[in-house]
């Protein structure tokens, strides 16, 4: 869909569309950055509030449960008020979430952290449903795939730098090993880091809100019709999605994939910092790029802050893997590539569980590379086979992202009982189930064209 002629012809119309696309791309970056801050935040709150692993993982649960609560309501909201007003509502909700996080940091109240994260994720859920069609629509329709891919690249970049900055701000001096004591000074500095991070995030979101408010007419004119429209109520779409066997299977696959990916990411800093992995080893500092990013403090072994910075390479592997996967998917069956990726990810988890040691740290970080193509491939394989309308199936699949709220909590319980390395048996089991899904998809012919699929 091209921009309306009056918009394109108006002085500055095209430059405004470019500015609008740039702002949408910043949205992609912002929600990737905010989401990946959960990883160092889990480690930080464990030390700040003296929590168990499972209690600390409630931070991830509070964030990702918003997808379960908000996915279908977000689509209904966009159908009712259109994309740009929905984005404004989402950004306002996120500003509220940041203000709650600032209160949590200044009052040192953990339940407020959970509330703030839920509000942030609720806004991000609406953004994810609204921003993808915006990125595709703002410009020449022939280049829509390029624009969407470019925006998603910035999202991946946000997930890469989030752990680096979060670890720097949240984890200085924080230690969570048995017998370690977090002093009042260290606790105050960590809370101050959380305060600083969400203060600047709040400022960025306010700036984006103002941009979309003042350019709302021009941007809104470029948006394609809302996907729900007159095609069915939210209840009808839910019923249609649940009536499809493949929609249900795809939702389970998304549940286990997101759960495994988030569980590994949120435990990664604690895992790497443990004495059984890198806590008493200087091995990672010998790896040029990794060692530079971690920034050795000169003390033997890997501190929690240094481990938190290494988590960026878990997400960085996913960023690189998406580029490689895009090339491979042009030559290899999507179902076969998914089967290969899930099988390798399961074996890497089992290596960590059975072998351990310093090498297990590098192996665990490499799992991100094989996670990279799983979400989009599961999505498209499901949409091709579901038989239900794409918007109905997509809504159910987005709701299944709640796996990121459930499985991290259980891996927290497991790590508290058997240790961080052995706890990776849970994501290993998730990857095995995803392998079974991939094999089933390879043996089932698509029932609708991939071109009709719309991934939010």
Short descriptors:
mainly alpha; 456 residues; transmembrane; MFS; MFS_TsgA-like; FHS family L-fucose permease-like MFS transporter; 2 domains; Growth Hormone, Chain: A; transmembrane transporter activity
Word description of this protein:
The protein has 2 domains: 1-228, MFS general substrate transporter like domains (Growth Hormone, Chain: A), CATH 1.20.1250; 231-456, Growth Hormone, Chain: A (Up-down Bundle), CATH 1.20.1250. It is globular. Helix 2 runs antiparallel to helix 8 (184-214) and helix 11 packs parallel to helix 17 (390-399). It contains 19 helices and no strands. The protein has helices at residues 5-9, 13-36, 38-48, 53-81, 83-107, 110-137, 144-170, 184-214, 216-221, 234-243, 245-273, 288-294, 304-328, 334-354, 358-371, 374-386, 390-399, 403-418, 425-442. With 456 residues, the chain is mainly alpha-helical. Helix content is 77%, strand content 0%. Residues 20-446 form the Major facilitator superfamily (MFS) profile domain. It is a multi-pass membrane protein. One of its GO terms (molecular function) is transmembrane transporter activity. InterPro entries: MFS (IPR011701), MFS_dom (IPR020846), MFS_trans_sf (IPR036259), MFS_TsgA-like (IPR050375). This is FHS family L-fucose permease-like MFS transporter.
